[in-house]
Specification:
Blueprint (H helix, E strand, L loop, with lengths): L7 H4 L3 H13 L5 H40 L23 H4 L2 H16 L8 H10 L8 H14 L7 H19 L3 H20 L2 H10 L11 H19 L18 H31 L6 H21 L17 H9 L7 H24 L7 H23 L6 H17 L2 H12 L5 H14 L20 H11 L2 H4 L9 E2 L4 H8 L8 E5 L5 E6 H8 L10 H4 L5 E3 L4 H11 L3 E5 L5 E6 H21 L15
Parallel strand pairs: 1-2, 4-5
Antiparallel strand pairs: 2-3, 5-6
Helix pairs in contact: 3-7, 3-8, 3-9, 3-11, 5-7, 5-13, 6-8, 7-8, 8-9, 9-10, 9-11, 10-11, 10-18, 12-15, 12-16, 12-17, 12-19, 13-15, 14-16, 14-17, 15-16, 16-17, 17-18, 17-19, 18-19, 22-23
Length: 651
């Protein structure tokens, strides 16, 4: 039976569902292999570009730090086992009077560059690229990668306290978005390529390809994953990692013990350490938040605030180095307070010949954790272009290492390896604050070169995730995809899938139906009794089962052909029925309504009997109710406390 309608007004969709229908038609189609292949090809291109950019950034930063801090100020940087020096310059005599001003000089130059060319590059970088994904349609200015790289090299190379992974998150994400824009892809693909670039940026300098890919899809949301971008992120991350190790060799950032045997009796210790690390993470977040608010209240130009933070950093750190350096085996010895500080985390993992033993080592590691948190707060809180990823790992490693050594002394258990607690502390600290428990778990396993610490990491990450549930390092994170502007259209599809047909159905409404042997004359006469909303007339078997349906168009045709009224039966007029079961969802119901070009559909119960009709107005009402409740919950649910929201962009 034809479903073509004769009245133009009946053939026109209702205005309330016109856009919804168009959206369903577009998104219900399976992903084309051509589209998937194009995204994967673009991911390789982004991974190669981000790997090359990350390699140049890493080398330039390392060279600048060695020339400025060591070659001029005589500072002896504390490095991780996987960090190499690629400069023939010798370390100069220690000049503390110069070291006081170097962080301020670098931050001043970086502040001038950022304020002039791209104010969004101030701060860590991760928050900015997350905001670009959610709120800026993955639109990034072309100047961002170079500006961020220069500003971060000057900030960190002159002694600012921060990590290099945060900047490479923004650099890699910006490269992904720019490649997408240059290739003319749509907004959805551009967002995916931004995430792939973010993964490539982290993988390039941290040398953890799988952990970087998971971090990219997990860090955008507090309680969700950007699952569509996982495969492109993995491919971009692997490509970027391959480019980087072709220049700097295949090695993990930190050296560590060959194995960390699992001891069941140590799990309570890891649980207790997770609580302590969570408290330390909360303290660091509040310190960072307070410092940022302090600098926001200062009536200084945007470019001058990082310089003031750098000066305060130099004034505080230099006397500490003068005091502790001789006690630790050398004048000008760095203890991880300037620059990335990865050497301090290495100290917590493997120790050092000059590190004292006993409780003095515990006190020193705990002190370094507090000092590193303060140094990072001054750099980032003032708007310095440095990452918060690296310092979070360092502080967590120092707290975990101090706890492990304390447990070893108190319990006198030779099976306790402080390095294992340091590694678990690293993942727990950042994973809890950034709400990336899976990514940080895999990152630590890749850093350790094995999955020996998988069980204690899972336990500690779960505790920190719960303990830091309402606190976030990244203010640009949204709770779920539903709250992200990037997925505003997907919300329609998600809501309709969540509501069952039986929950939206209005029952006990009168309608007209026919037996299969009903004549056309009877059909024409009884159709006048139908309610105004009824568009289709069910044809039932003797036992009440649905056999087919007759459209109103067919009934109208009968009125124009009176000669056939006594010759035609319902079974001759009916067509295959459009129906939906009560336990199916509204999205399925809407798809079938669209396929049959009807405004309502028959609803059957589990036994196959008619429960009623579902009208498109009920779908609209259900969608409105669910989204209204979701908006009410988002208003009533308090946002994460101590969220660090950077100043708005200045264009």
């Amino acid at each position: 039976m034809s479903e073509n309608r004769t009245e133009p007004s009946r053939n026109r969709p209702r205005p309330g569902l016109r856009d919804l229908r168009q959206f369903i038609r577009r998104t219900s189609e399976p992903l084309e292999l051509q589209l998937l292949g194009r995204i994967l090809l673009h991911s390789v291109l982004i991974g190669a570009a981000a790997g090359l950019m990350g390699s140049l950034f890493y080398y330039a930063l390392e060279f600048t730090e060695h020339v400025i801090l060591e070659g001029i100020a005589g500072y002896e940087a504390l490095r991780a086992g996987g960090e190499e020096i690629h400069s023939p310059l010798e370390r100069a005599p220690f000049r503390p009077w110069l070291l006081v001003f170097l962080p301020a000089i670098g931050a001043l130059l970086a502040g001038l560059i950022s304020a002039r060319w791209a104010p969004e590059t101030q701060g860590g970088g991760a928050d900015a690229i997350i905001r670009d994904f959610h709120h800026n349609r993955a639109q990034v200015r072309r100047r961002v990668p170079v500006t961020k790289a220069l500003a971060s090299i000057l900030t960190l190379g002159f002694g600012g306290s921060g990590g290099r992974e945060g900047p490479t998150m923004q650099i890699g994400g910006a490269i992904g978005a720019l490649v997408g824009r240059a290739l003319g892809v749509d907004e959805r693909e551009r967002r995916i390529l931004l995430v792939a670039g973010l993964a490539a940026g982290v993988s390039a300098v941290f040398r953890t390809p799988l952990g970087a890919a998971l971090l990219a899809v997990e860090v955008l949301h507090r309680d969700d994953f950007e699952s569509d971008a996982l495969v492109p992120s993995v491919l971009a991350s692997v490509t970027s990692y391959s480019v980087f190790i072709s220049f700097f060799g295949e090695a993990t950032l930190f050296t560590h013990a060959p194995r960390y045997p699992f001891v069941l009796g140590h799990l309570p210790l890891y649980a207790l350490m997770a609580l302590i690390v969570s408290l330390a993470a909360l303290g660091f977040l509040r310190m960072l938040h307070s410092t940022r608010r302090l600098f926001e209240r200062l009536k200084l130009p945007l470019w001058a605030k990082p310089a003031l933070g750098g000066l305060m950093l130099g004034v505080i750190v230099t006397p500490i180095l003068i005091e502790l350096g001789p006690r630790l085996g050398g004048e000008g010895r760095g203890i991880g307070l300037l620059g990335g500080g990865y050497g301090a985390a290495q100290l917590a993992i493997t120790g050092s010949p000059w590190l004292p033993g006993g409780w003095y080592a515990v006190e020193l590691l705990a002190l370094l954790a507090v000092l590193k948190a303060g140094a990072t707060a001054l750099t980032l809180g003032s708007g310095g272009s440095a990452g918060d990823f690296g310092p979070s790992l360092v502080i967590g490693g120092l707290v975990g290492g101090a706890f492990g050594r304390a447990a070893q002394l108190l319990l006198n258990d030779p099976r306790i390896d402080p390095g294992a607690f340091a590694l678990v502390g690293m993942g727990t600290f950042y994973g809890g604050l950034a709400h990336v428990p899976i990514a940080s778990l895999v990152l630590v396993c890749e850093l350790a070169g094995s999955y020996d610490l998988l069980v204690p990491l899972m336990l500690a990450e779960a505790i920190a995730f719960v303990g830091l549930r309402r606190h976030s390092l990244y203010g640009a994170q949204v709770r779920t995809k539903r709250e992200s502007p990037a997925h505003r259209d997907d919300l329609v599809l998600d809501v309709l899938r969540e509501v069952k047909v039986g929950d939206a159905l209005v029952r006990d409404r009168t309608y007209v139906s026919f037996r299969r042997e009903a004549t056309a004359r009877e059909i024409l006469e009884r159709s006048t009794e139908a309610p105004v909303w009824q568009d289709v007339f069910p044809v039932l078997a003797d036992d009440g089962r649905l056999l087919g349906a007759i459209s109103t168009d067919s009934v109208r045709n009968l009125a124009m052909n009176p000669d056939v009224l006594d010759l035609t039966l319902a079974v001759d007029l009916m067509a295959a029925p459009a129906f939906v079961l009560e336990d199916e969802d509204l999205h399925t119901a809407l798809e079938r309504m669209l396929a049959h070009a009807t405004r309502e559909i028959v609803v059957l119960d589990a036994a196959g009997a008619i429960s009623g009709f579902l009208d498109e107005s009920e779908i609209q009402l259900a969608y409105h109710d669910v989204t209204s409740r979701a908006r009410a919950r988002s208003v009533l649910t308090p946002p994460p406390r101590n969220v660090l929201t950077p100043p708005p962009r200045q264009r």
